[in-house]
Structures are given as structure tokens and as C-alpha cells.
UniProtKB/TrEMBL annotation:
<protein>
    <submittedName>
        <fullName>Aspartic proteinase nepenthesin-2</fullName>
    </submittedName>
</protein>
<comment type="similarity">
    <text>Belongs to the peptidase A1 family.</text>
</comment>
<keyword id="KW-0732">Signal</keyword>
<keyword id="KW-1015">Disulfide bond</keyword>
<dbReference type="InterPro" id="IPR032861">
    <property type="entry name" value="TAXi_N"/>
</dbReference>
<dbReference type="Pfam" id="PF14543">
    <property type="entry name" value="TAXi_N"/>
</dbReference>
<dbReference type="InterPro" id="IPR033873">
    <property type="entry name" value="CND41-like"/>
</dbReference>
<dbReference type="InterPro" id="IPR032799">
    <property type="entry name" value="TAXi_C"/>
</dbReference>
<feature type="compositionally biased region" description="Basic and acidic residues">
    <location>
        <begin position="1"/>
        <end position="10"/>
    </location>
</feature>
<feature type="domain" description="Peptidase A1">
    <location>
        <begin position="238"/>
        <end position="575"/>
    </location>
</feature>
<dbReference type="Pfam" id="PF14541">
    <property type="entry name" value="TAXi_C"/>
</dbReference>
<dbReference type="GO" id="GO:0004190">
    <property type="term" value="F:aspartic-type endopeptidase activity"/>
</dbReference>
<dbReference type="InterPro" id="IPR021109">
    <property type="entry name" value="Peptidase_aspartic_dom_sf"/>
</dbReference>
<dbReference type="GO" id="GO:0006508">
    <property type="term" value="P:proteolysis"/>
</dbReference>
<dbReference type="InterPro" id="IPR001461">
    <property type="entry name" value="Aspartic_peptidase_A1"/>
</dbReference>
<keyword id="KW-0378">Hydrolase</keyword>
<feature type="active site">
    <location>
        <position position="256"/>
    </location>
</feature>
């Protein structure tokens, strides 16, 4: 940052103009210059202060330090958080600069005998500019996992179906097996390792790599279907509860925008069923259940959906899917009555009735597929909901979110970006990322870095993955702005970590992602840093292994945003939300 200095005596303060100084340009010598000024001026408590100023309106000043009665909230904190009452104003200035708050559009330091003013070379001081440069100020305790459920106070009310969303590892989920305990460090590492397996699977699909000999799950005595590495990618972290059958049975399913075929475990378990919280679904007890024949058009479409040719036994269609984390499900393609809410029922819903299942679903009964495929819930309910759905994920594991089907008007309008042509023939939702900013400054990343492999948005991937060149630029900028904090060792896939032991609050630079159509997603601070413990807090982004690997806009960066998938109009929208 380059600052221009202006010296003014006391009488000139009110005439502080918008003209830039033609004097020396200060980069890293601000503190030295202030020291010299302080040696010449007598500091008088109650008069000396630091203020931001509006270059176009010099009288529009905001006191930020020095005056004990200056209580205006500016740059996110009150004066009492600064050491402004130390016997030397220099300490207050240094604290602000070392905290990386030197990104003021304007800065003026008043002394008993005059003042020193600084202005950014770029010039204009606007509310938008101040917002972009202003860092997040966050208490570390607010980022650490809680073992108490704090649900959102109000879910959206509209005529379409809305389901509650919970994190499967959090206290709001009845699937949580930890009780009042929090996830251990080893559990956190496993979660991130599973995340990488999912990413690897997505990369494998979209790069159309060959040579995989395929996977074959444990064979069933009734099913000869081979389960190979196909078009499915692994379990996510968010759960919704739906009703299946007549009478309906409540089942908790993992919502997944990267998978098409919905399925649940069914009795009889021919070979193996993993432990789930609710009773396993019994088709024979439902009056609306039916198998799908091998001659069905949807049976023949299974291969394009799962990557596995369907099997056929006694004229009944069989499916098989395997996920990136080595979970799998084998069973019958079936149709049943699906109940989302008491007034939202889908008849003849096609799903997989799994009789041979194994995996890391942590008590969930199965999966709810929301991808761009004819077998997904979105397409099967297209006439009812217009192939439109949105979600707002829980802002933390101890909170709740929602999943809505059908258009609704949010409190703040959605900003839509078109789906990318790069993923047109896949089941993924592709986006055209155009840039990234850190600390209010757009990083110098060439457009080809993003366009080479493209980007997909995925509700099941936790950590956003960026092309190496883009991630290197983000990491460098973030580390520079966080350089005054103690570094910590890398944590699994996260390589930029800090030890905040003994620190109550920290300044975290803002990060924004830009997409085609002029859409900016300013990531909430809860989606910027991944807090394992006070001594292990990391930047919640990671790089891909190669620039040819597709980027993934993961769910951690969706927090505090409602994300709308308007599949009919081929676009994805973002709206700030309180959830």
C-alpha cells in the first residue's frame, strides 16, 4: 500500500482538502514518520486522536482512537479495544497498523501542535470501499464447535416445501453419536480426509480418466451386479428428514447436489447393512411400493446416472453405486410415495432400495440426490417445483438450516450467475469463476487460470479447492495480512494455520469470490477460517494438485448464504441470509 503524506498545522485542519500530496510516497515507513512527528509534538491526552477522513468531504471525520469519549463504532470495533489510553499515541497507531488496519482509505493523526494526514493513492473514499477494506473482527470462542444445539429462530415460510437441514456431526442431529462430546482432532482429520476422497472422485469423473479396473462390492447371493467406480462421489455432511412409503416412515438422508440417484437401506439386507438411527425401511410393509422392471426406460438410463450397467433378476431392475470414500449401495430400482411435508407428496418417486450397503454415512438411512440428472429429485419433481430449489446450510454444526423446493422470494434478491458450458453434459452444477479478492484487493490472477478447468459448486465438498496458481496467490495475500499472528503447523489438507492461544479476538481479512454476470460472494468469516481448537485455526481453502483439475466451490464457503439452483433457467443464485 502506498500512502501520501500531508503535514498540517492546527489552523489548517478544517481546510484539509482532497488534493493529493506531491510529497514522498510512504510504503513501510509510516511508523518511522510518526515517531519523528511525535518527537516534535507534545501528546495531550483527550485531544490527540486518529481518524479516518473522507477525501471528498474533509469534515466527515470518524474518530477511531485517542479520545476517551469517542464511542462511534468504526472499522468494526470500539475504541476501548485499542491501547489508545497508553501514555503515547504512537502505541495506538502501531497497534492499528500491526493489526493490518493500515488499509484505511484515509488516515489522519492529530497532535497538540498539528496533524499528519495520509491518503491512499487510489483516492476515493466510499462506503463500498471502506466495507471492502474493513477486516472481520472475530472472537475465537465464536468459531469453536459447541455441543449445544442453537437452531435458527425462523425458517422461510412459503407455499413450497421446506425441510430442516442439520449437520450430521452436530448436536442438532439425532444421528450424532457423540452425545455431549465434541468431535476429536482425529475425527476432524478423518472428515477432511473423506473430503479429499470426494474431491478425487469428482476430478476423476470430470477428467474422464480411464484405466480404473473398477470396484466390486461384496457379492450378494441374489445380485450379480458389479459395483464399479462410477458417476457418484461420496457422502456429504448435511441431513434432511423425509417420509417414505404408505404409511410413511421417517428417514434421514444426506442431501447431495453431486449425486443423482436417491436411495435408502431396505430389508431384507441380503449381504450387509450398516447401522442407521431409524428402523431400516421395509418395502413389504408399504402399500405404495413397487419394483421397476428391467424393460423400464429409467432402468436403461441407470448407466448414464451411476456409471454402472444395471442388472436384471426375475425381470426386476438392479442398480449399483460406489462413492469416492468407498461407500456403496446395491439393490433394486423401485418407486414409492415420497413425503416432503404434510402437503408436499410425490407419487411414484424412483429411488434405490439398497439391500447390500456399506459406508461412512454415520447413521443416515441413505442419500437424497439433487444433481442435474433425470433420476434426481429435482427432475422427478420438476412439474411440481419447476426444477428449482435452494438451501441455506447451518452457519455452524450447532445450528440448523433449510432446504426449499420451488421458487420463493428471499429477503434480499438473489444475484444469479449462469451455469458453465464446461459441465453442460455432466450432472454437476458448473460455475464460471472470474476472480478472487483478499483484504479488499482483487488478486492478479489471469482469467485462464479459472477457465482452464472450470469450477463446480458442490454441497457435499467441505473445503473449496482452487487451481494451484490461484490458491498460491490467495495464500500469499492472506499470510501477509495475518503475519503478526503466531503460525501453527498444517492440519490435514489445510496448510495455512495459526495458534491463537491466549488471544481473544483476531482481525481476519475479507475474501470474496467473483463469478460471471458480475456476481460477488463475500465469504462470511465462519467460512474463511476452520477452527479445530484455539491453537489450530486454519484458512479454510486448499489447492488442487494440478491446474487442469476442476475447481470446487465447497459448502464451507456457502455459510450464511442462501444458494438457489434454478435448473430450468440454468443458473445459480446467491443471497445473504441469517441462517
Amino acid at each position: 500500500m502506498c500512502l501520501h503524506q500531508q503535514h498540517l498545522d492546527t489552523e489548517q485542519q478544517d481546510e484539509f482538502s482532497s488534493e493529493k500530496s506531491s510529497g514522498h510516497c510512504y510504503d513501510e515507513n509510516i511508523l518511522e514518520d510518526l515517531t519523528r512527528s511525535l518527537q516534535q509534538c507534545q501528546y495531550r491526552e483527550g485531544y490527540s486522536y486518529i481518524s479516518t477522513y473522507n477525501i471528498q468531504n474533509p469534515r466527515d471525520d470518524h474518530v477511531v482512537a485517542g479520545n476517551p469519549y469517542a464511542g462511534e463504532e468504526i472499522i468494526g470495533f470500539r475504541m476501548g479495544m485499542l491501547p489508545s489510553m497508553q501514555p503515547n499515541l504512537f502505541l495506538a497507531v502501531k497497534a492499528m497498523i500491526m493489526a493490518r488496519l493500515q488499509v484505511f482509505v484515509g488516515l489522519r493523526i492529530e497532535f497538540g501542535c498539528g496533524s499528519v494526514g495520509y491518503a491512499l493513492e487510489e483516492g476515493k473514499d466510499t462506503a463500498d470501499t471502506r466495507h471492502r477494506y474493513r477486516p472481520h473482527i472475530v472472537k475465537i470462542s465464536s468459531l469453536l464447535a459447541s455441543n449445544v444445539c442453537n437452531p435458527i429462530t425462523e425458517a422461510p415460510h412459503h407455499k413450497k416445501a421446506t425441510l430442516k437441514v442439520v449437520h450430521k456431526h452436530g448436536p442438532c442431529s439425532h444421528l450424532n453419536q457423540l452425545g455431549d462430546q465434541k468431535m476429536s482432532a482425529s475425527d476432524e482429520i478423518k472428515l477432511l480426509e473423506q473430503d479429499q476422497l470426494r474431491v478425487n472422485s469428482i476430478h476423476s469423473q470430470l477428467s474422464k480418466r480411464s484405466g480404473d479396473p473398477g470396484f466390486r462390492g461384496p457379492k450378494s447371493t441374489k445380485s450379480a451386479i458389479p459395483v464399479r467406480s462410477g458417476q457418484t462421489i461420496g457422502s456429504g455432511n448435511y441431513i434432511v428428514t423425509v417420509g417414505l412409503g404408505t404409511p410413511k416412515k421417517q428417514l434421514s438422508l444426506v442431501l447431495d447436489t453431486g449425486s443423482a440417484l436417491s436411495w435408502t437401506q431396505c430389508e431384507p439386507c441380503v449381504r450387509y447393512c450398516y447401522a442407521q438411527k431409524e428402523p431400516i425401511f421395509k418395502p413389504l410393509e408399504s402399500t405404495s411400493y413397487a419394483n421397476v422392471s428391467c424393460a423400464s426406460e429409467l432402468c436403461n438410463a441407470l448407466e448414464s446416472t451411476t456409471g454402472v450397467s444395471p442388472g436384471c433378476i426375475t425381470s426386476t431392475c438392479e442398480y449399483g453405486v460406489q462413492y469416492g470414500d468407498n461407500s456403496y449401495s446395491v439393490g433394486y430400482l423401485s418407486k414409492e410415495r415420497l413425503t416432503l411435508t404434510s402437503s408436499d407428496v410425490i407419487e411414484n418417486f424412483y429411488f434405490g432400495c439398497g439391500q447390500n450397503n456399506r459406508g461412512l454415512f454415520r447413521g443416515a438411512a441413505g442419500l437424497l440426490g439433487l444433481s442435474r440428472d433425470r433420476l434426481s429429485l429435482i427432475f422427478q419433481s420438476g412439474k411440481k417445483y419447476g426444477r428449482y430449489f435452494s438451501y441455506c446450510l447451518p452457519s455452524s454444526r450447532s445450528s440448523t438450516g433449510f432446504l426449499s423446493f420451488g421458487y420463493r422470494r428471499p429477503r434480499k434478491a438473489f444475484k444469479f450467475t449462469p451455469l458453465s458450458s464446461l459441465t453442460k453434459d455432466t450432472q454437476f452444477y458448473g460455475l464460471d469463476m472470474t476472480g478472487i479478492s483478499v483484504g479488499g484487493k482483487t488478486l492478479p490472477i489471469t482469467a485462464s487460470v479459472f477457465s482452464k478447468a472450470g469450477t463446480v459448486i458442490d454441497s457435499g465438498t467441505v473445503i473449496t479447492r482452487l487451481p494451484p496458481k490461484a490458491y498460491d496467490a490467495v495464500r500469499k495475500a492472506f499470510r501477509q495480512l495475518m503475519s503478526d499472528y503466531k503460525a501453527a503447523q498444517s492440519y490435514s489438507i489445510l496448510d495455512t494455520c495459526y495458534d491463537f492461544t491466549g488471544v481473544e479476538s483476531v482481525f481476519v481479512p475479507k475474501i470474496s469470490f467473483f463469478f460471471s454476470g458480475g456476481v460477488e460472494v463475500e465469504v462470511d468469516v465462519s467460512g474463511i477460517i476452520y477452527a479445530v481448537s484455539q491453537s489450530q485455526v486454519c484458512l479454510a481453502l486448499a489447492g488442487n494438485g494440478d491446474d487442469s483439475d476442476v475447481g470446487i466451490f465447497g459448502n464451507f464457503q456457502h455459510l450464511k448464504w442462501e444458494v438457489a439452483y434454478d435448473v430450468g433457467k440454468e443458473r445459480v443464485g446467491f443471497s445473504p441470509s441469517a441462517c
